[in-house]
Predict the structure.
Amino acid sequence: MRTLSPADCAINTATLGFQAPIGEVIEAVARAGFGAIAPWRREVESHDVAAIARHIRDAGLAVPGYCRSTYIPAADKAGFAANVEANRRAIADAGVLGAKSFVMVVGGLPAGSKDIAAARAQVAEATGLLLRHAKSCGVRLALEPLHPVYAADRSCLSLLSEAIDMCETVEGAAADPWLGLCLDVYHLWWDPNLARDIARAWGRILGFHVCDWLVPTADVLNDRGMMGDGVIDVPRIRAMVEEAGFAGFTEVEIFSAQNWWKRPMDETLAVCAERLASAT
Ligand code: ZN
């Protein structure tokens, strides 16, 4: 397996804690030698999307993914339709940004609901509705299963096997290259069937997110670790992901309110580059 250089890798802007405007973040990521950037909607919406896209291109950066979907499951039909519509607008922005994929963090249970099967059915229905629009925008949909600790509030899609099943359900008879998966080591590392399911995901992997699981973890949302600082065998998972046909950017995505978000961007980026080479 090759040693990763920054040019092979992307920085998900959440890693830098949203401490500066997107223009400064683009410059910092390019200056550190990375090949790609994955921005969030909070940095893009209500700004000039075409100008941001131009800035990213001029900085020589690719955009592997745009984060992330509006949660889909809703308590009623009007809410569901509004969530689908919000995602249509975001997918159009992803197209303007030149993003290869739109990252689908699908949402959990609607308020007051205890019906997770119904939530999953809404996700499948919405994914089908959004897929045609995504194609027309030149953007792939990447379903990102999340650790089951988030099943109630962030993602009723937990297992990689479930995400693959959902792709197959939405596609019908033949695999659709516009629909795929985003694999994040934080969400999947513990799964005893991980090797089997990554192999099953062959050709479908559109994004690969890396960080580490700290022991102890103070906060499962915002206490992610830098690669090498926790218990995830990140190189082993990267090997499986690349064996399954993934040849895109390895993307660093670290939510770390008490540590990395408090450091200057250039320092965090330098450590990312070092750990991508030594611990990823
Ligand atoms: Zn992720």
Remarks:
- The radius of gyration is 18 Å.
- Residues 144, 184, 209, 253 surround zinc ion (CB under 6 Å).
